[in-house]
Amino acid sequence: MAASYILSRTLVPTMVMLLMGSAAPARGDVTAPAARPNPFLRLHHAFDQRFEQVRRAYTLVLSGLLARRRGFIVGFGLFCLASCALVPFLGRDFFPTVDAGQVRLHLRAPTGTRIEETARLADQVEAVIRGLVPPRELETILDNIGVPNSGINLSYSNAGTIGTLDAEVLLSLREGHRPTEEVVALLRAALPPRFPGVEFFFQPADIVTQILNFGLPAAIDVQFTGANIAGNAALAAELAKAIRQIPGAVDAHVHQRLDAPVVNLRMDRTRLQQLGLSAFNVGQNVLVSLSGSSQTAPAFWLDPRNGVVYNVAVQVPQYGLDSLDALLNLPVAATNAATATTANNSTQLLGNLVEPSAGRQPAVISRYNILPAVDLYVSVQGTDLASVADRVKALVDQVRPRLPKGSQVVIRGQVQTMQDSFVGLGVGLAMAIVLVYLLVVVNFQAWIDAAIIIAALPAALAGIAWMLFLCGTTLSVPALTGAIMTMGVATANSILLVDFARQRLAAGVPPLAAALEAGATRIRPVLMTALAMVIGMVPMALGLGEGAEQNAPLGRAVIGGLLYATVSTLFFVPVVFAAVHRRRVRRQPRRPTVAAAAVAQGASAVPASTGH
Fold it and tell me: 237 Cβ partners below 8 Å, 6+ apart?
């Protein structure tokens, strides 16, 4: 806009001067020689003739509306007000969903499942998927089973992986596939009945949705925080059952598992003292045997042949610890010189020092601001995010009074960012209208005429609501951005018309005639400005191309807003201008008359008082 303004003040006048310099006015009856037949000139004349017909029809319609000003103003205002009632039916999303042709399925077996069994389960699930999705649509399937091979990868991953019971099935669809949401809905309905006891949920596969979720595996995160993990987990499981009954809420699941099978080894401290051992000796020997000492006491070996340093980890082979008896037969010895002297260098079996028992413990511990956290993730399918979030919030409010002492529950995720963004953009839209109004007041030095110009903006908002409603597009950040963009163009068109009407009014033309002339004269630039913007937004509104769904609401909002704003500029604004200024003209003669009558009454009262 800044560059176009500079060019309109520099290059455009220069080009006009160069183009019009050869045009000479006709002198007397001398006619200019016949020009060569120019196809562009003929096209111009043909278009101009058609446009003049449109201008005449528009003038007739506008003159009829000027004759019925009050009814048209009331009817048009009620229409714009009624159109705002469509907003609750549009739905609200942070950003539109992108169809990237990728599916990210996460399956979770019962807690404690070995990775070999998880791999076998993943193969069965993959076979079912290949039977449900035809080969012409399915390109590749990739399975990631178990935890990542690095703690860093696990820290920066939103896969929801917590152990050997987890597996990710990544699907890539071929070009020309059916909508990805249909494939996800098909798998979501078909897989759980075929694999009872296995938990399935889908996570964002494309990079755009992953960024919008800010690292979370779902759009809605109901997070319980507090020291009472068991109590919070019980409430989260109860809440998950209620959320599954909400239409559009899918994949509601608790991320944390509290039932991982473990073997508890309770040490006999009296016997340890008799043998001259300590709990540290038992823990250190078990740790080194099972996991090595690479983290507590790292060791390195330099290969003299290639100069490469290798980490050395000494531990018992996993196949050597295939039963509880093998674990209890681990030797336990003193780990330092002082203890070894006291214990007489005796080595004991682990089974002689501990009492084993089966138990359960959390499979993963999550924290938020140091406090233990339990996360309930919820995704959305077939509806907008805000409607599901509102109903989830109502259920959360019902659960909040039953929280354990010291616990709290908060809704996080994409929905929280969406609400903050909507508030900010709503304030921005209101501020844009106010600032445009104040700018017009400064330029026109008239509060009323500036208000007449702003009168076209409610129609723009109505057009945005209707276009989004007809296209089945939810209200989102791009749509609100398009609404803010529309305000400037709609105001510019109204300024064109009102400015010309003010000029005609200053020349002594009556308000009705000034409004009619302004509409008939300014219809061409108004239509040119609006059509240029609308045509430029058509490719964006169609959403053509991969990932174009993100910007489609912006184009649709701009097109709908400009279409209605143009109608308002050409019909509603002239009628309001004529009605307001005609009323002002009618009031002007009355004021001197009233003042003269007051002076006459005062003059007649003075002699009467003097005579008395």
Answer: 254
